[in-house]
Design brief:
This is N-acetyl-alpha-D-glucosaminyl L-malate synthase BshA. This protein is of the alpha/beta class and about 400 residues long. It folds into 2 domains: about 190 residues, Rossmann fold; about 160 residues, 3-Layer(aba) Sandwich (Rossmann fold), CATH 3.40.50. Strand 6, helix 6 and strand 7 form a beta-alpha-beta unit. The mean pLDDT is about 90.
């Protein structure tokens, strides 16, 4: 099967899922074409069956804001014509699904099927804006197949846009052989913490909805009870406010600001606890990666997180903004080695049993087959890793 994938190439859950999906499909023998304005950040090395097509922007004096969406649509049509694509998989309804629809109208040699995966903010933020709501609805309605990463997001989409069309829930996935508590020794814990100290971790794009200052507040409370360090991975609007708060609370010297990292699996392998106090989180890919690495999660009960995190088993869920409660649970868990070990083991088991990459990729293949009207042949057999070994 020949598949086009268009997504945002930057750090973020949707880009990660789209890129990892494409690479896994390529491993199974499918031909995959990525189309975006930059190389997806997890697509760093040559891989058989994977091609990247860069969207070139037109510089013209009349364009105060270069029309990326039109350039993308033109590139999608070009790639579809040259490679006779079977499916164009758009990650985000706006702008990618709409651009895929426009590309199909102008493409000459193919009438590919459009599959759209909804990730969250395209519905709850962009799609909820009155200006973009009609266009978002149009992109969803014109797609031949639509998936959402959680039941919560499917319900929100159907309610916000008053849709009665089917939306398939296919959750995000994780490679448990890569996100493992064992690690490869390239990132020892001693690089970040002294002997006896615990490592608390947060990874995000530092948008306001991620509530990074809350992470700092939680850590400050934990640090008063448990010798610990905080690793913050990512960058974005809330980085400066969070740094100022850390100075104000007197915990800056115990915080490492690691910026954007591609190989986040190395950092997960040294962490003892993952903090995710988000206001908006349709799934929580970083939380899943933490669980796969055997790292319990303290998170908010927002949106899709209760579908992933089992309260009291793989971590704890508390109300958005409940800094005191999250700090209390974090302190309790980091102070009880037996409870931490049990929760760590359960976290990894739940991640492997429900979200292992070898279980989820066939769900996409089966969905493509339904959209195309015939079963998808897997060119090469897939052998998932023995992640529990």
């Amino acid at each position: 099967m020949k598949i086009g994938i268009t997504c945002y190439p930057t750090h973020g859950g949707s880009g990660v899922v789209a890129t990892e999906l494409g690479m896994e499909l390529a491993k199974r023998g499918h031909e995959v074409h990525f189309i975006s304005y930059a190389l997806p950040f997890r697509l760093k090395e040559f891989q058989e069956n994977v091609v990247f097509h860069e969207v070139q922007m037109l510089s013209y004096p009349l364009f105060q804001y270069p029309p990326y969406t039109l350039a993308l649509a033109a590139k999608l049509a070009e790639v579809a014509d040259e490679n006779h694509l079977d499916v164009m998989h758009a990650h985000y309804a706006i702008p990618h699904a709409v651009c895929a629809y426009l590309a199909r109208q102008v493409a000459r040699s193919s009438r590919f099927k459009i599959v759209t995966t909804l990730h969250g903010t395209d519905i709850t933020l962009v799609g909820g804006d009155p200006l973009f709501r009609p266009l978002t609805r149009f992109g969803i309605e014109q797609s031949d197949g639509v998936t959402a990463v959680s039941k919560y997001l499917r319900q929100q989409t159907q309610e916000v846009f008053e849709l009665d069309r089917p939306i398939e829930v296919i959750p995000n996935f994780v490679d448990s052989a890569k996100f493992t508590p064992l690690g490869d020794g390239s990132c020892p814990k001693e690089r970040f913490a002294r002997k006896g100290e615990r490592v608390v971790l947060h990874i995000s794009n530092f948008r306001v909805s991620k509530r990074v200052p809350d992470v700092v507040r939680i850590f400050a409370a934990v640090r008063r009870e448990v010798p610990s360090r905080l690793l913050l991975v990512g960058d974005g609007p809330d980085r400066v406010p969070a740094r100022e708060l850390a100075d104000e609370l007197g915990v800056s010297k115990w915080i490492r600001w690691l910026g954007q990292l591609d190989a986040v699996e190395d950092v997960f392998s040294v962490a003892d606890l993952f903090i995710l106090p988000s206001k908006n989180e349709s799934f929580g890919l970083a939380a899943l990666e933490a669980m796969s690495a055997g790292v319990p999660v303290i998170a908010s009960s927002a949106e899709g997180l209760p579908e992933l995190i089992r309260n009291g088993e793989t971590g704890y869920l508390l109300s958005v903004g409940d800094v005191e409660g999250m700090a209390r649970r974090a302190t309790e868990l980091l102070s009880d080695a037996k409870k931490h070990a049990a929760m760590s083991e359960t976290s990894r088991r739940v991640a492997i049993e429900n979200y292992e990459v070898g279980k989820i990729i066939p769900m996409y293949e089966e969905f493509y087959g339904r959209v195309l009207g015939h079963p998808v042949r897997v060119p090469q057999p897939y052998s998932p890793p023995d992640a529990l070994a």
